[in-house]
Request: fold
Amino acid sequence: MFKKAVPFFIKIITPLHAGTGQELGIVDLPIQRERHTGLPKIESSGVKGSIREVFREAFPEEKEKIEVAFGPEENPQHAATLGFTEARLLLFPVKSAMGIFALTTCPMVLRRLKRELSLPGVSLGKPVPAIPDENTVGENSSLLLQYGQGEKAVVLEEFTFKVKEDEKTTQFAAWLKGYAGVEEAPQRLVVLPDDDFKTLVNLTTEVITRIKIEPETGTVKEGALFTEEFLPSETVLYSLALATPLSFQQVREHFPGNTPEEVADSILNFFLKIPSFIQIGGDATIGKGIVQIIRGGGQ
Reply:
């Protein structure tokens, strides 16, 4: 059981493909999705593996410490002391008729965020504010259009949503800016009904057709045409880094502390050395999956 945890946020800079392998569907290479909601995610094993690779490249002199934290890759004799939850969707960008694009979410997603950041042992600092109502925007929104007789709306893709400016949404957008580092939240945040949010997400992920060219003929290689799904740039996800202060000898050597809580703090302080920009998912050689890591507190 983990002793302490710190939240961190993943802002996608270039489209990201965390795949499931080939499927018999419209898209040849779809992204990972939650079974019960259908919303995109990144499995915890993918999050952990990507971060481990970053630490191995950034801190080659601390190979043994990395193995204690992330677990040995060969001949495992002990578990990892650092773990991760799956990265869940928080904000999804959608094309807007005003302000270029909106950052959409829904009450279900925000309630789940608040619940997970309220788990025992999670180092939060600034509490999550009250959950906004659906069909609301912040008071500083740049997305609003006049609709009917004095009513206001946002147009996302080809859908129109009647919305109202709401103080709770304004406060939540301010929290996202200050705590999660989402600078655009006060101007772009839209809280949609749960079902409408799911529909928009499923309709507006990026699907790219890829090919392979025969160098001798300059034509497409037979059988090399496929489609691949990506989470778009500006998507924001969140995860928890979990510290489990096991008691084998190497833990005491590399992560000192007089109590399990102090050892857990040492483990999490090591994780917080993570670089601000890393790569997650496939297609690294064509510039995909570059993300910004923002630890809770906007740092």
In short: The radius of gyration is 21 Å. The first helix runs from residue 44 to 58.
